[in-house]
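Example S7 (structure tokens).
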């Protein structure tokens, strides 16, 4: 029996969190484990995943697929320097490619999910454009990469709020009353009290009881995976409790925590040299953390992980103590 394909969208509420770095090196880690893997650059208009894989910027890719209407997306896959790993380039040259029409987006998405691989990692654009949100919907368990600073966490919550509203809206396109209700809340002033998804669900249920139940099921279906990047100390993970509260109270979402990557000079060195962290700095703390995330994907991807924030904290604390002992 052929193993199913797992789509892994990787997003961040704002640029600078390290999602492209993570996409490249996580794809390498999965490929090194023997799994056919494809890294896809879906940061249309700002594509640079090639650089983190150590490749050049002359590869035809999604831009050519959309412009020239090449029939088969697999024809654009190229080897990425690691056995089992292929790369699908984006397009950083074509003006306005980040604003592709809806029809082109649907065509692209339907072709991506058919690509021949065990794991398909999608490097998405930063922010919460419709295209990015829709690409994130290709999996119920997309990664959100954050740094342990307040602005990054707030941007993540904003991204997930836009995401779940996009999901709700997309499921009621033909329901005029619910669309009007959503539009009413979209148009509220900043001075108005922020409405929670739970309250919105109650308002939707008052209009259409079955629709209200459907919103509840949608919120249960989508369970994002959070990765802390550029951490300085395991205690950075303690903010997870506040994140969980905000996700639950405001967005009716739950999250699993999949990794903690320490701030590491080897990451900066690999970026400057335009080479992947793996395999060049395999023994670095960051590389070791990414390897653990890859193994966690293989073992737990389709499962909810109870107390995942505490488990990741314990792992980060063990790594931190081990590194201190090594350097003492």
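Recovered sequence:
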């Amino acid at each position: 029996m052929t193993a199913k394909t797992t789509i892994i969208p990787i997003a961040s509420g704002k640029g600078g969190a390290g999602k492209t770095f993570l996409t490249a090196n996580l794809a390498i880690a999965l490929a090194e484990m023997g799994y056919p893997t494809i890294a896809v650059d879906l940061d249309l208009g700002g594509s640079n995943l090639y650089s983190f894989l150590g490749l050049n910027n002359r590869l035809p890719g999604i831009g050519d697929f959309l412009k020239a209407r090449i029939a088969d997306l697999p024809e654009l896959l190229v080897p990425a320097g690691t056995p089992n790993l292929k790369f699908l380039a984006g397009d950083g040259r074509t003006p306005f490619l980040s604003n592709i029409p809806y029809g082109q987006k649907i065509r692209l998405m339907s072709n991506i999910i058919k690509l021949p691989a065990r794991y398909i990692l999608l490097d998405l654009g930063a922010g919460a454009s419709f295209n990015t949100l829709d690409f994130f919907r290709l999996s119920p368990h997309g990664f959100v990469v954050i740094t342990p600073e307040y602005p990054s966490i707030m941007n993540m919550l904003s991204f997930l709020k836009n995401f779940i509203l996009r999901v709700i809206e997309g499921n009621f396109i033909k329901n005029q009353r619910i669309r009007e209700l959503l539009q009413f809340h979209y148009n509220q002033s900043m001075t108005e009290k922020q409405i929670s998804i739970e309250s919105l669900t109650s308002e939707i249920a008052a209009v259409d009881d079955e629709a209200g139940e459907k919103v509840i099921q949608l919120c249960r279906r989508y369970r994002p995976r959070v990765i802390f990047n550029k951490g300085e100390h395991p205690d950075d993970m303690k903010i997870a409790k506040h994140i969980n509260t905000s996700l639950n109270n405001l967005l009716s979402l739950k999250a699993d925590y999949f990794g903690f990557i320490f701030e590491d000079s080897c990451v900066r060195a690999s970026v400057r040299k335009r080479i992947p962290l793996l395999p060049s700095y395999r023994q670095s703390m960051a590389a070791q953390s990414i390897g653990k995330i890859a193994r966690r994907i293989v073992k737990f991807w389709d499962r909810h992980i109870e107390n995942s924030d505490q488990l990741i904290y314990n792992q980060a604390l063990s790594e931190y103590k081990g590194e201190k002992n090594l350097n003492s």
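Notes on this example. Strands lie at 6-11, 37-42, 78-79, 85-88, 119-124, 143-146, 225-231, 256-262.
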